[in-house]
Amino acid sequence: MAIVNIYDAKTRLSSLVDLAAAGEDVVIGRNGKPVARITALAPPKRSIRFGVLKGRIKLADDFDAPLPVPAESAIGRR
């Protein structure tokens, strides 16, 4: 990981970004002192795939039917 002068970094930015994307950190310096670093971003973990469980989950036909009267009266009791 060598220090690249800021002037050189401006002229070779795309090649330095390619180096960083390949996994090598690039340090940009001013007057021989490091001031910034170009590094690769971590790849996204994974995208959301909708519909993966389609057809695998079954709901009862009366899933949203009202509760029977005895069950409704028991809800309010403790």
Describe the structure.
28% of the residues lie in helices and 18% in strands. It is of the alpha+beta class and 78 residues long. The protein has a domain at 3-38. A hairpin with a 2-residue loop joins strand 2 (26-30) and strand 3. The longest helix is centred in the first third of the chain and has 9 residues, at 13-21. The chain is rod-shaped and about 80 Å long. The N and C termini lie far apart (69 Å). The relative contact order is 0.13. The model has no long low-confidence stretch (mean pLDDT 87).
Summary of the model, kept short:
With 78 residues, this protein is an alpha+beta fold. The chain has helices spanning 6-11, 13-21, 69-75; strands spanning 3-5, 26-30, 33-38.
What are the salient characteristics of this protein?
78 residues, alpha+beta, three-stranded mixed beta sheet, 3 helices, 3 strands, 28% helix, rod-shaped
Portion of residues within helices: 25-40%
Radius of gyration, in Å, reads: 30 Å
Morphology call: rod-shaped
How far do the termini sit from each other? 69 Å
Chart the SSEs and their pairings.
Blueprint lengths: L2 E3 H6 L1 H9 L4 E5 L2 E6 L30 H7 L3
Parallel strand pairs: 1-2
Antiparallel strand pairs: 2-3
